[in-house]
């Protein structure tokens, strides 16, 4: 029996040592992968002070983003001879879209900029495209959705069923209105509509100016509908059907050497993002050790981090049934 006990203890000790070395090996591998990813700066790609064609991706919902704004400012000061603005976005915050528009217009003062609509450049995404000197879209790309909206939940019916009344003391009737916890007054709705219409007028003015549309031609495209690339070219919302190759060909007509390398511009990775890579490596290591619950806990530790849209939205989404 003593020998059996010693054998059991030896097996347990061996398992602990094996687990230790597994963790160490996975950790070393994770560090190596992260170091390789962060150290890929000297791979022969042209730097920002060397002549090149810059390629910038604008994808997803548009929100305020300091790193994106910094990238666009750096691009303005770079040696890029031309810019490809690759757009795949349904839009987002009006103010964030305005920031991109203004930044791209400044970039375009020094070199030609062409927007390439990939799957979608709708609403705020189309605002970004308008800043370019030329817009290229696929035949089936989605664009348009020219308009502005504000959405807020109305919980008044639910609160009544629960027997809850929300009371407030305001300096004036329109303060914090509409709120969603009390019926929207006609005055509050009118004030909100005024905000929407003012931003909408700004959006329409950009479309009229950048696409040289007015009268019936303008009215046809600013009613909030979306269009395919095939439709959009007939409505003068885009200039050409195609993709990146066609965009580079157009840059050549503007004096940009088409043999220049295309350099993809991405926001710089900061300390917090490196921490995120470390978290991902730790989660992967936990999974490799057969600890899925620990891996999920690591991934969800910072799940609340994120950004928010500003109040008024220029965004397209399918109608909800």
From TrEMBL:
Residues 108-253 form the Peptidase S49 domain. Pfam families: Peptidase_S49. Keywords: Hydrolase, Membrane, Protease, Serine protease, Transmembrane, Transmembrane helix. The chain crosses the membrane at residues 20-39. The keyword Transmembrane helix applies. PANTHER family: PEPTIDASE S49 (PTHR42987), PROTEINASE IV (PTHR42987:SF6). Belongs to the peptidase S49 family. This is Signal peptide peptidase SppA. It comes from Methylopila henanensis.
